[in-house]
Amino acid sequence: MKTTKSTSVGAFLAVLLAARVNGIMFYLEPNSQKCLKEEVQANVLVTGDYEVSEAPGQKVDTVVKDSKKHILFQREDVLHGVKEKKFSFVTDTLDKIEICFISHVPSHQRGIKQEVSLIIKKGIEAKNYEGLIGEAAKLKPIEVELKRLEDISETIVQDFARMRKNEEEMRDTNEMTNSRVLYFSIFSMCCLLGLATWQVLYLRRFFKAKKLIE
Fold first, then answer.
1. Would you list the domain boundaries of the chain?
2. Average pLDDT over residues 24-52
3. For a FRET experiment, which of 65, 98, 187, 193 has its CA 20 to 30 Å from that of 204?
4. Can you tell me where the transmembrane regions are (predicted)?
């Protein structure tokens, strides 16, 4: 029974972490631009590794912006032989980032489409525990793993807190909407009753004026 419970917890953690890694591959047409949007939470480390297939004479620029068009990362002329093809930054608020790849082909050359692969990591998966934490704090392997599990636990708690907050906001919005619909319905009925009463009185006066009724 304990083994089944541990397996379930491990599967849950694996699904949670897998949701934080997004990989995609697409083709970029010559002299074109393709942008991808990704929603990120506040105070989260975001890293991206990308590869661009080789095309003689062609250049590909990479730009990462937030929803306010602030440039978070920019690199020009991403060629096949460049080793450093990655970006990283920490978000300040909940936002949607836009990752754009822009193709440039000389006017005298006929371009070909290039293959672009991109892997985005967020949160725990974006951290290099062995390389960064291990060297900085001189931690042993078991201590590094414990640190990783601690961060995973903290992330899970934060996710549950965020989901609870979103649920409360949605419930408040639902209750507010129901109240507004109820008040609007009452107001509409009052208007209809008032209009119907005015119409009856007006017709009565009209028919009396025409001496059609007493």
1. 21-126
2. 88
3. 187
4. 181-203
